[in-house]
Amino acid sequence: MKPSESIDPAPHEPNRVCDVVVVGGGPIGIETAIEMRRNGIDAVVFEAGPLGHTISWWAPQTRWFSSNDRISIAGVPLNTIDQAKASREEYLTYLRSVVDQFRVPVETFSKVDKIEARPDDPRRWQVRVRSKWIEASAVVLAIGGTDHPNRLNVPGEDLPHVDGYLREAHHYHGRRVLIVGGRNSAVEAAIRLHRVGAKVTLSYHREELPETSIKYWLRPEIDGLIRSKAIEALFESRVTAITPERVDLDQILPDGRHHTLHMHFDDVLTLIGYEQDKTLFKQLGIRMEDPGGKPIYDDETMETELPGVYVAGTAVGGTQSSKYQVFLENCHVHAVKITKHLLEYGIGSRNTEAKTQAKPSASPELNRQIEMNPES
Ligand SMILES: Cc1cc2nc3c(=O)[nH]c(=O)nc-3n(C[C@H](O)[C@H](O)[C@H](O)COP(=O)(O)OP(=O)(O)OC[C@H]3O[C@@H](n4cnc5c(N)ncnc54)[C@H](O)[C@@H]3O)c2cc1C
Fold this sequence. Notes:
Elements lengths: L15 E8 L3 H12 L4 E4 L6 H4 L11 H4 L16 H14 L4 E2 L4 E7 L2 E9 L2 E10 L6 E2 L12 E2 L12 E5 L3 H12 L3 E5 L15 H9 L4 E3 L2 E6 L4 E6 L5 E6 L3 E4 L3 E2 L3 H6 L3 E2 L4 E2 L13 E3 L20 H13 L7 H7 L5 H9 L4
Parallel strand pairs: 1-2, 1-6, 2-3, 6-19, 8-15, 9-10, 9-15, 10-11
Antiparallel strand pairs: 4-5, 5-6, 7-16, 12-13, 13-14, 17-18
The chain binds flavin-adenine dinucleotide.
């Protein structure tokens, strides 16, 4: 062999082998794994944060706007004590129960940071999690589309009193809060913080709040609060700088002139949407298209242009910047499409252990005891 010829790198020694690695333990990642395991496909879920990470960072007691039957997964009814739309807490409880009930193997706080084809077999995938390698016939990227808050890109936005997430509302009692944004998250935060006794100012870059796309039950309330000046609204304004002492805003007046406002706030919440983490798409060379860098995939099978690499859930929508088109609500079908394609390809159906585990069990606690003491 000539010195210039490269030696094919050896495949990584896998710590674990399974049929499918599902990246992301949100509702759709979990639903996909259950659908696969019901069909005898040994699917394992790796989640970067806690189970249902995206929902876990919503402010306490935030409610879904979708009705419960549309956000329930795997055919398990989602009921709330008062028949209202589920809150963050109710949904996370539900998600834990579903995972326990179907004994879905989920490893939380396990970020997938590398995926590559086996050098000697491009149809097999090697996935790195916490420095260990897992080998699988297929990978499902159910990574969601809201990895981190959008940035204003102004000086001072990393100061400690500036936050891209609404936290526990109680924290803001008696404080002067600037909320930047004019869509659901910002409007909902403005109303909630006003109710807990914060002095709220809303800065939005357009002339008025969007005509559509604000939850119908929030709209009359925010309009009323702005009209009565209980919430101060600075339309056509943009934050230009933040310091510990003040926030500078540029506002366009009705006559078209710009003027600069210098205002003091205790907290600044930049609720201007969220961005997808594209690291894995880029690493794998998955082609993306605008708007939002949506991954390109086959709508029939959810397979990307890489054989054996699928996308599921809101991950397919890329970064959804204005009106959201892809929700949990309209993603349930992804689990079925991918499973069907894998079965056609001959993956799964023979794995009786996965199939048995995916059957709803009488008591998750009993299952745990049986696993710990198989003799009992
Ligand atoms: C305040 C608020 C209210 C909402 N209300 C609704 C609603 O009423 N109805 C609705 O349909 N949608 C709603 N949404 C959107 C909702 O969050 C999504 O529809 C839902 O979470 C999508 O589920 P998913 O499984 O596709 O993605 P996600 O729930 O985002 O799950 C993706 C998961 O992948 C994990 N992940 C990402 N990268 C990696 C990696 N490299 N390794 C391991 N894990 C990784 C993430 O940590 C995350 O847990 C709302 C969003 C917000 C912010």
